Amino acid sequence: MEIARDYNAAHDLIERNLKAGRGAKAAFRDDQGSLTYAQLAERANRFGSGLLAMGLRMEDRVLIAMHDTADWPVAFLGAIKAGIIPVAVNTLLTSKDYQYMLADSRAKALVVSQALLPQFKPILEGLPFLQQVIVAGAQFEDVLKKGKSELAPAPTTRDDACFWLYSSGSTGMPKGTVHAHSSMIETAELYAKGVLGLKESDVVFSAAKLFFAYGLGNSLSFVLAAGATAVLMAERPTPASVFKRLVERKPTVFYGVPTLYAAMLADASFAKREDLALRICVSAGEALPPQIAQSFKEKTGLDILDGIGSTEMLHIFLSNRPGDFRYGTTGRAVPGYELRLVDEQGQPVQQGELGELEISGPTSAMYYWNNRAKSRSTFVGAWTKSGDKYMQNADGYYVYGGRTDDMLKVSGIWVSPAEVEAALVGHPAVLEAAVVGKEDEQKLVKPKAYVVLKQGAKATDEELKAYVKEKLAPYKYPRWIEFAAELPKTATGKIQRFKLRA
Question: pTM of the predicted model, to two decimals?
Answer without folding.
Answer: 0.86
